[in-house]
Amino acid sequence: MVFLRLKWISADLLASVCLMKRAVCPGSFDPVTFGHLDIIERASAQFDEVVIAVLVNRTKSSMFTVQERMEMIAQTTAHLPNIRVDSWSGLLVEYCKSNDIQSIVKGLRAVTDFDYELQMAQVNLQASGVETMFMATAPAHSFLSSSLVKELAHYGGDVSSMVPKIVNEALKARVAESGN
Ligand code: PNS
């Protein structure tokens, strides 16, 4: 009887793991901003598990290593119980396939993001059937991007309202190290 009951529990557990709604929030996150964190928090409320995947964007050069970016994300999302941080250097849909992820979540700031994001969503859908869900960026973050933050930080601008404290400190340290 006890054995039967254990079998039931493990079958239930197995079923709930298989039925988990899992999404990925992909990006360069170089570095993570309050705009990213807003999307991550809101996505975490919609899915059982959200993987933040730090990906290599071949069109951008980076300020922080993938490991550094992952650590900043892990620290700033530690309050969210259903978040996992990972990295990947291939096609996003391959990552989704091998991690049983059904949805990609992306933030849309403005119409300028739309063309490129739509193309990627359509290619990813056609290639693999993985859905892309777009979330409207909160108006307070609509102008915010990692590139803008890096540019401001490079010239000594104040980015404390755009990134968490640990990211601000990491930016200042990296700018000081680079010495230009
Ligand atoms: O934060 P970013 O740089 O705008 O993120 C873009 C990113 C890394 C999510 C995108 O370039 C990507 O998905 N790269 C992985 C390779 C891939 O799957 N490309 C899409 C084929 S259309």
How large is the share of residues in beta strands? 15-25%
Number of strands: 5
Outline: globular
For the record, give the distance between the C-alpha atoms at the N and C termini, rounded to a whole number.
72 Å
C-alpha Rg (nearest Å): 18 Å
Helix content: 40-55%
What is the arithmetic mean of pLDDT? 92
Low-pLDDT regions? none
The H-and-E topology, N to C, reads as: HEHEHEHEHEHH
Strand order of the largest sheet: 3-2-1-4-5
Name every ligand kind in the structure. 4'-phosphopantetheine
**Can you count the helices?**
7
- Helix-strand category: alpha/beta
Largest sheet: 5 strands, parallel
Task: Itemize the secondary structure elements and their pairings.
Blueprint lengths: L1 H17 L3 E6 L6 H11 L4 E7 L10 H11 L6 E6 L3 H7 L4 E6 L2 H18 L2 E6 L9 H9 L10 H14 L2
Parallel strand pairs: 1-2, 1-4, 2-3, 4-5
Bound molecules: 4'-phosphopantetheine.
